[in-house]
Design goal:
This protein is mostly helical. The protein folds into 2 domains: about 100 residues, RNA polymerase sigma factor, region 2, helix turn helix motif (Rna Polymerase Sigma Factor, Chain: A), CATH 1.10.1740.10; about 90 residues, Arc Repressor Mutant, subunit A. It has 11 helices and no strands. The two termini are about 45 Å apart. About 25% of the residues are buried.
């Protein structure tokens, strides 16, 4: 029988390990919500340690741990037992860590301040991302490139010359046979357009201008 609230606090860690996960899951799916408390008690420390190894922040670990078990609670009725319960729980925890790190990397790479401000510089993806953030950086670089493709031809040309080719304003002006003032105007409009295009991505919302996302 799954542990109940009355005797849950009396169970040792060794005894918790002996309780069958599938029995707890089946009890929960049959309406015994107390069985979920036993699952939490059995795995909360393990999941917290797992999250902390990736996040390295106690408060964030606590928040993510609560988020993980909330997801588990909402999805447990659909768990079919095709894998071990802990494997399923582990994937949920890791996905939560990945989502958190990806969101932080987005904010660091293109700060929300850049979206609000009117600065003349627009921070592009680093050309040498750290190995641990390579996937997130590649994704962000791809999103930025697609956003730049949404710009009008002149703005796109000037933007790429300035930031991808790393040309100075005066060099871009000579290359396209326009005044420096015209180049700055194109860049200003490009910055403003890109801030609008990238805002949903930075706020973890769908991009309505890209069917592939």
């Amino acid at each position: 029988m799954p542990a109940t609230n009355k005797n849950l606090e009396l169970i040792s860690a060794d005894e918790l390990e002996l309780i069958d996960d599938y029995e707890l899951v089946r009890s929960f799916q049959n309406g015994d919500t107390e069985a979920f408390n036993t699952l939490v008690l059995k795995y909360q420390n393990r999941i917290a340690k797992l999250i902390y190894r990736h996040i390295h922040d106690a408060e964030t670990t606590k928040d993510l741990c609560q988020e993980v078990f909330l997801k588990v609670y909402k999805s447990l009725s659909k768990f079919k037992g095709n894998s071990a319960f802990y494997s399923w729980l582990y994937r949920i925890a890791m996905n939560s860590c990945i989502d958190y790190v990806r969101q932080q990397n987005r904010r660091k790479t293109i700060g929300l301040d850049d979206l609000e401000g009117g600065t003349e510089e627009f921070l592009l993806i680093s050309k040498q991302p750290s190995p641990s953030h390579l996937i997130e950086m590649e994704e962000l670089g791809d999103i930025i490139d697609k956003a730049v493709n949404q710009l009008p031809p002149k703005q796109q040309q000037v933007f790429r010359l300035r930031y991808e080719k790393k040309l100075q304003i005066k060099e871009v002006a000579v290359l396209i046979n326009r005044s420096e003032g015209t180049v700055k105007t194109h860049l200003h409009h490009a910055h403003r357009r890109l801030r609008g295009l990238l805002r949903p991505y930075l706020e973890n919302r769908p991009l309505d201008w890209d069917d592939e996302i």
